[in-house]
Amino acid sequence: MEAQASRAPLRLVLLLCFFPALHRFVSTEAAPTLVTSLPGFAGVLPFRLETGYVTVDEENGAELVYYFMESEGDPRRDPVVLWLTGGDRCSVLSALFLEIGPLKFIIDPYGEDGTVPRLRYHPYSWTKVASILFVDSPVEAGFSFSRNPKGYDVGDVSSSLQLKKFLAKWFTEHPDYLANPFYIGGDSKAGKLVPFVAQKISEDIEAGLSPVINLKGYLVGNPATGESIDEESRVPFLHGTGIISDQLYELYDQICKPHILYKRCFYVSPRPNDRTTERKILKEETGILKSQPPRPPIDCQL
User: Fold this and answer.
1) What is the rounded radius of gyration, in angstroms, for the C-alpha atoms of the chain?
2) Which of 40, 79, 207, 258 places its Cα 20 to 30 Å from the Cα of 22?
3) Taking every pair of C-alpha atoms in the chain, what is the biggest distance, in angstroms?
């Protein structure tokens, strides 16, 4: 068990770093790279993979990296899907290798003899029916970067506008895909960005701005739209879709109402509301924390 735990950080590092062809801090607006093979995969890739950077903030030199996997069906007709991953600046490589992409990891021991993880072809990838444009967003997610540290100071709105700018530039450089049906997709925290980006693109279409993207819709999986909305809407959603009965819904409604006399509860490990606090694990020595996090009282209603 201890040996497996010790290899966990190595797995994460290898996930992000053992693809030298996929991440290069190159000059602004450099030509994209066509990747035909990857370490850990035997032979030539059975699909077309293009990767590159697109500048979305000229003032600070901020660039978003993308991985474009062309449809294995009919790329001239099949939809093009922009896919964003969730989390707080998580790499879209997690979606590519662990969710909807055409490559999967072979689960076996590796690393001790200097080898890299092995890859296998995923026959049920979304690329069977669509071209997927995986993008590391916002800036600082994955291999997207900024030459000026100020370029990392982006929020939901500013990063969404950068994605709109990214798409305008990408489609200008890839006009062959402009006629294809286009969808915007993502999961988790991307649920806040996807509808906004779709709205802004729709507004550009109505205004007649070029390039005219053939936007057809958007899709979200397990979307985060706001903690209060997400958590408080679960029971009404289950009832409205028929998953729970009227009787059970009425029971929940009776026993789950908040009480103004309840003590105010807090999370065991509260997170900072801003990015001024650096991750302590990178700064402090491992061991006992200098100050233990607060514990919720026993009678706290969670």
Assistant:
1) 22
2) 79
3) 66
Distance CA 80, CA 69 (A): 10
Per-residue pLDDT band at 300 (split at 50, 70, 90)? low
Confidence band of 257 (pLDDT split at 50, 70, 90): low
Which domains does the chain possess? 2-225 (3.40.50.1820)
Confidence grade of residue 258 (pLDDT, cut at 50, 70, 90): low
To 5 degrees, how large is the angle CA 287–CA 292–CA 298?
135
Whether residue 12 has pLDDT greater than 60: no
Q: Per the structure block, which two tokens stand in for 293?
A: 């996090």
Q: Are 177 and 206 in contact (CB under 8 A)?
A: no
H helices of the chain, in order, are 2-6, 8-17, 93-98, 156-173, 194-207, 227-232, 234-240, 246-255
Strand intervals (E) in the chain: 33-35, 49-57, 62-69, 80-84, 103-105, 119-121, 131-135, 145-146, 182-187, 215-221
Cα dihedral 161, 164, 170, 176, rounded to 10, equals 180
Above pLDDT 90, what percent of the chain? 51
Centre a 10 Å sphere on the Cβ of residue 18 and count the other Cβ atoms it contains.
Answer: 16
Q: Which residues of 135-173 are buried (b: 16+ CB within 10 A; e: fewer)?
A: bbbbbbbbbbbbeeeebbebeeeebbebbbbbbbbbbee
Q: What angle (nearest 5°) sits at the alpha carbon of residue 213, between those of residues 88 and 103?
A: 50
* Contact (Cβ atoms closer than 8 angstroms) between residue 253 and residue 239: no
What pTM did the predictor assign?
A: 0.71
